[in-house]
Design a protein that fits this description.
single chain, mainly alpha, AhpD-like, 2 domains, 59% helix, globular
Length: 435
């Protein structure tokens, strides 16, 4: 049986600090995280280079990455650990490597800017693994070296406006919700067009996935990342982008392909927004489909509780409504859904363990311990634990996108929320949270 050791699990859960959905429900207390210095993260990367990962990375790396997607020189046998973690899911390593290359070197925003954003996410999430990779690639170009020097010296105010605004966007969207305020969004939109803003937002979401993946599995930095310079074989960046983006025939065809009408209504406003810059989301969706092809060992309810816990922790209205609908469709009694708005007392020990791990990974990714991971594996098996990790990482990605974009909720999730709770979702005023 997949779910086991309930008595021991209950003792572990009850011994932990008390938490509840109600603590995170409408909008969490703002997270006042302070970025860790680049020098500190670089030192940590070397100190922890030999640390033991929480998943076996010793399997052969041959064939995991398509040569065209590798960011290492032709003929190199260097395969990053962030690719190896997906080795148990056929096709997923190559798909994730393709996504990394696309997010860094595709799209309409300068690669050095996106690498700088990744470094800022690593600083806020205290993640030396992403920091080491971002620093290595920034050092591969003259423009990247200048940007790295400014970030390292904490002198970003002197950077060109396009770089300064992108870093500010990452700073506000990464550590707290709802991170990007209207003034910042207007400022960024005054320089970047809509498609580029979608790309900036996708980039922040992707790196927040990446850091939680690395922290959840305690990925050690590869020796070759620390000791060899990066020489990525990538096309030259061409900065041209129209001031006013428009929906091309290709856009419309992709909408027809990816967003079919369901139950008489289109339920995918988030995806419609993402398709203003279609290449990155399509690559990300393709990766997600490949990962999900491996049958999950988790009950659907557990997976839905995990994504619901992340959405409520992050205060994302759009994702809270959608994950609540997922719980309802997983067969959860509306009375139980109503009760968890108050506290966690109606959750089973297994549900509570998964939820608490997802919250911890969301709010303080750098605090995940070997004991946290061992408890998941003991209860759900390693594949089940990976499903929980991937689900929590993915929802942290989506929360940042939908929160930044103010994605409007569709009729079905809204109606479901009203049916369960009798009212509309509203955020808790920040003035009340500060008390």
């Amino acid at each position: 049986m997949i779910l086991r050791n309930s008595t021991a699990l209950l003792a572990v859960v009850l011994a932990g600090a008390p938490t509840s959905f109600s603590q995170y429900w409408s909008q969490p207390a703002p997270m006042r995280l302070h970025p860790v210095s680049v020098a500190t993260l670089e030192n940590q990367a070397r100190t922890h280079a030999g640390s033991k990962p929480r998943i076996d990375l010793s399997a052969s790396a041959a064939g995991l990455v398509d040569p065209g997607d590798s960011l290492e020189p032709a003929g190199s046998e260097n395969v990053p650990n962030y690719v190896k973690v997906f080795a148990s899911r056929p096709g997923a390593p190559a798909a994730f490597a393709h996504a990394v290359r696309a997010f860094l070197y595709g799209g309409l925003v300068q690669p050095e800017i996106k690498l700088g954003m990744g470094l800022r996410v690593a600083q806020f999430n205290s993640n030396p693994y992403l920091a080491a990779h971002a620093v290595r690639f920034l050092r591969s170009t003259e423009e990247g070296k200048k940007l790295l020097a400014a970030i390292s010296a904490e002198k970003t105010a002197a950077l060109p406006i396009e770089q300064r605004l992108a870093l500010k966007y990452a700073d506000e969207l990464s550590p707290e919700f709802g991170g990007v305020d209207d003034a910042t969004f207007r400022e960024v939109r005054g320089y970047y067009n809509d498609s580029q803003i979608i790309e900036l937002t996708e980039t922040v979401g992707f790196f927040n996935y990446f850091t939680r993946l690395a922290e959840g599995l305690n990925l050690p930095v590869e020796a070759w990342v620390l000791d060899t310079p990066a020489r990525p074989d990538v096309p030259a960046f061409h900065p041209y982008a129209g001031r006013i983006p428009f929906l091309t025939d290709e856009h419309l065809a992709r909408i027809d392909e990816y967003l079919p009408s369901t139950e008489g209504t289109n339920r995918y406003n988030s995806e419609r927004t993402q398709l203003w810059e279609p290449d990155l989301p399509e690559i990300w969706w393709a990766f997600g489909k490949i990962v999900s092809k491996t049958p999950s060992t988790l009950p659907r309810a557990i997976r839905s509780y995990v994504t619901f816990a992340v959405a409520t922790s992050n205060g994302c209205r759009y994702c809270t409504l959608h994950t609540l609908l997922s719980l309802r469709r997983a067969g959860i009694d509306p009375a139980k859904l109503a009760s968890i708005k108050k506290d966690d007392s109606q959750l089973s020990p297994e549900e509570l363990l998964a939820v608490q791990f997802a919250r911890k990974l969301t709010r303080r990714p750098g605090t995940i311990t070997d004991a946290d991971w061992s408890s998941l594996v003991k209860t759900f098996t390693e594949q089940g634990a990976l499903d929980i990790l991937f689900g929590a990482c993915g929802m942290n990605y989506l929360n940042r996108f939908n929160d930044a974009m103010h994605s409007p909720s569709e009729d079905v999730p809204i109606a479901n929320y009203r049916e369960v709770y009798g009212d509309n979702w509203t955020p808790t005023p920040l003035s009340a949270l500060a008390k």
